[in-house]
Amino acid sequence: MGTDNGSHSELLRIATAGSVDDGKSTLIGRLLYDTKSIFEDQLEAVERSSVQMGTEHTNLALLTDGLRAEREQGITIDVAYRYFATPRRKFIVADTPGHLQYTRNMVTGASTTDLAIVLVDARKGLLEQSRRHAFLSSLLGIPHLVLAVNKMDLVGFDQQVFDDICAEFIEFASKLDIPDITFIPVSALHGDNVVTSGDSMPWYAGPSLLGHLEEVQIATREQPGHARFPVQIVLRPHSQEHHDYRGYAGRVAGGVLRPGDKVTVLPSGFTSTIETIHTADQNLDEAFAPMSVSVTLTDQIDISRGDMLCGVGDAPRVSQEFSAMLCWMADASALAPGVKLAVKHTTRWARAVVKDLLYRLDINTLERETDARTLGLNEIGLVRLRTTQPLFIDDYTANRETGSFILVDESTNATVAAGMIVSDSYADEFVTGPLIDVAG
Q1: Is the N end or the C end of the chain the one with fewer CB atoms within 10 Å?
Q2: In CATH terms, are 8-215 and 317-427 the same topology?
C-alpha cells in the first residue's frame, strides 16, 4: 500500500519489457502525459516531432525514446529511466529494449525493480521476447509482474482475445516462481485503462494500470533481515580534532544496523559493537538498506575496503567456490570452462575461473541444455565459479545485493556477465530441481 508520509517506501521502481513495437515507450509516455509529469515545452517538442514524422496522433513514445538514433529507427535501443509522481506514490520507470540482442539491457534495467510490466501486443499474443522477459523477471526476483495486453483498440476491445492471452501466459508462468501476477487490458495510444478506466472495456472490472501501481504492496526496506554492511571506504581524517576517529563508510545491503548491536567483521571473524551510525550531518538511531552511512565501532580492528560487517551468528556464506545463474553480455567472446575473469561482489574484487558450465537455458522452452559448452551473447546458464579469495555471499533469493555480482574482462575492463548466486543444493540437483531457486 502507499504511505502517507514522505518516507522512502513511497517509491516504486518499475521496469517495462516486452517484444519490439509492443508499445512500451508509448505506455510510459501516456503515464507521463496523463499524470501531468511533463513540461509544456516537452509536449510541444513531441507534437512538432509527431507532425514531422507524419503520425496521426501525438507520438507519446518520443517522451521516452530520447536518443536521436532511436527516433530515426523507431526502436528503443537502451534503457531509458523516467520519473513521475502522483499524490499516492513516486515512481521510477526503466524502459528496457525489446530486441533479442538487448536482453542484457533488460537484465541491468530490471535488477533493482519492485515490479515488472511485460507488454503484449493483443494482435500478436505471446512472443519469444514476452516469455524471455517474464523468465528474466522471475530470475531477477522481481516480486510483482503485470501482464499488460496492449493495443486492445486494434482487436475491437475483444474480451476473448484478452482471456486467451492470459490463459496462455498462466500456463507458461506456472513453470516459474512469480509470486504475484496481474493482468490488465490497455490501449496506450488512446489511454484506456492506463491512468483511467474509460468506457471501451466494460467487461473488465479491475483497476487501471496506474491504480494498480499506486496500490501494489512494496516490500519495506527496513523489514527484518540479515544485517549486511560491505565496507566501501575506511575514513581516517588524521586531523588534530579527529585523530582517534576511524569510521567505515558504505551502503547497507540488508537488515538493520543500530548503535549497540554486536557485529562480526569478515573475513577476520573479529567481533565488536557499533558505537555510532551517522551521515555527513547527523547521527542516526538506525540504518537500513539501501542507506549510505558511516559506522564506528567500539574496538580498533583492522578493517579494509571489501570487508563486511554482519550480525553475530548471522554471517553470510564465506566461500571461494559457488554456483550462479549467469547472463553473458559480451558479443566479442563466449563463456566457457577455464575462462579467467575478475569478479566484483559488493565492494570486493577477486579473480575467478569458470570451473564448469552445468547447463545453458533455452528461455523459450525452459529446457536445460546440459551438453552446452559455451554461453554466447544474451544467453543464460548455470555455472560454477572459483575465486582467488573468499567472497561473503547469500543466495540471490535471500538478498539481491549480496547474492549478485558482475564479471569483468581484465584485458578490456568491460563487464561481460551478471550473475545471481544460487544455493549449493540447487546446483547439486539442477537436473530435477526447479528452474528458479526459491529457497531462502
Answers
A1: N
A2: no
